[in-house]
């Protein structure tokens, strides 16, 4: 009797141990099967989207991640420098690109005068990527004298801000001629191109170097599509003598904080132009290239005076239209 009682606890322990081992084996088998099934389903789950969201779009990246990834989006320009040729448009664009909230195309797109048939999607694709709060810009000086450009830009966006850099039309014409002369040294003299007939003193307004400077005539075309308050007129002369002052006006016009100030410029006596102490994305000083600031040829002063007389009434009308006296007379 005593022996049977003493063996019972041993039997109970063996049975408990056996049950524990069996339970462990069972749990292991269940876990293995479940893991195997999930592993087999994983490729299918990766290939097939959820049935209720067959084309779910990914979450848009935030501004910070977009910036770090060089992302952002391409937008049609909210502001365009539309003119004028040899007025100082390149200088203005290079100065503006120092501002962290301005993103601009480097090359001139010539969309609204030469490439309009390519379509707005093509034009948008030329633009740099921008983040929220940044302004997309481009500059093509020939827009100002292109008859179709105002209607085309208005059709893109009636709210587009326009900037025109203007310069004494006589000096501008000589600068225009100087540029052409550097490419084609065999062209006729400035004096011979200026007149239809030198004897009568009749100015040849079909010559583009003369025609571009009739600012009032071109502006009339733009005012058919844009209010005067949507166009900023920048003085090409003051862009040289007071770049920070003119850039202040431009930044105000674009609704930007005045970040570009006197501290960004130094005057290069050799070129006769202001230069940037630090260009966009660089820690080095930057001046405009060799094509800017060319030495003008000597022009017969009688011809210069005749041109000043020719432009005077057009200048006066331009002053009245813009409400600003540029002091060219």
From TrEMBL:
Active-site residues annotated for this sequence: 86 (for sulfotransferase activity)
E.C. code: 2.8.2.-
GO MF term set: [heparan sulfate]-glucosamine 3-sulfotransferase activity
Membrane topology: Single-pass type II membrane protein
Entry's Gene Ontology cellular component terms: Golgi membrane
Keywords from the UniProt entry: Disulfide bond, Glycoprotein, Golgi apparatus, Membrane, Signal-anchor, Transferase, Transmembrane, Transmembrane helix
Family annotation (InterPro entries): NST/OST, P-loop_NTPase, Sulfotransferase_dom
Keyword Glycoprotein: yes
Chain sites annotated for binding 3'-phosphoadenylyl sulfate: 86-90, 167, 175, 292-296
Disulphide linkage map: 275-287
Location within or outside the cell: Endomembrane system; Golgi apparatus membrane
Pfam families on file: Sulfotransfer_1 (PF00685)
EC category: transferase
Domain Sulfotransferase residues, every copy: 77-312
PANTHER family: HEPARAN SULFATE GLUCOSAMINE 3-O-SULFOTRANSFERASE 3B1 (PTHR10605:SF7), HEPARAN SULFATE SULFOTRANSFERASE (PTHR10605)
Family: Belongs to the sulfotransferase 1 family.
Name this polypeptide is given: Sulfotransferase
Organism: Pelusios castaneus (West African mud turtle)
């Amino acid at each position: 009797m005593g022996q049977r009682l003493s063996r019972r606890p041993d039997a109970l322990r063996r049975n408990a141990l056996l049950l524990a081992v069996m339970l462990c084996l069972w749990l292991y088998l269940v876990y293995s099967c479940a893991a195997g099934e999930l592993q087999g389903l994983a490729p299918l789950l990766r290939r097939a989207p959820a049935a209720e969201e067959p084309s779910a779009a990914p979450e848009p990246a935030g501004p910070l991640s977009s910036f770090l990834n060089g992302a952002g989006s391409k937008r049609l320009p909210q502001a365009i420098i539309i003119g004028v040729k040899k007025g100082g448009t390149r200088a203005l664009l290079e100065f503006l690109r120092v501002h962290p909230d301005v993103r601009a195309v480097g090359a001139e797109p010539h969309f609204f005068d030469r490439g309009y048939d390519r379509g707005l999607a093509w034009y948008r694709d030329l633009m740099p990527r921008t983040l929220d709060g940044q302004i997309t810009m481009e500059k093509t000086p020939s827009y100002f004298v292109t008859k179709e450009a105002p209607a085309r830009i208005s059709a893109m966006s009636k709210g587009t801000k326009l900037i025109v850099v203007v310069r004494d039309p006589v000096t501008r014409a000589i600068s225009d001629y100087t540029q052409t002369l550097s490419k084609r040294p065999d062209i006729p003299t400035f004096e011979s191109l200026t007149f239809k007939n030198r004897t009568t003193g009749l100015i040849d307004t079909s010559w583009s170097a003369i025609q571009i400077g009739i600012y009032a005539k071109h502006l009339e075309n733009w005012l058919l599509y844009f209010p005067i308050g949507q166009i900023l007129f920048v003085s090409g002369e003051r862009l040289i003598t007071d770049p920070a002052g003119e850039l202040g006006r431009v930044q105000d016009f674009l609704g930007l904080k005045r970040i570009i100030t006197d501290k960004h410029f130094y005057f290069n006596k050799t070129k006769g132009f202001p230069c940037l102490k630090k260009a966009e994305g660089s820690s080095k000083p930057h001046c405009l290239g060799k094509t800017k600031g060319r030495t003008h040829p000597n022009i017969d002063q009688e011809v210069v005076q005749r041109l000043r007389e020719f432009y005077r009434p057009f200048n006066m009308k331009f002053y009245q239209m813009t409400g600003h006296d540029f002091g060219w007379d």
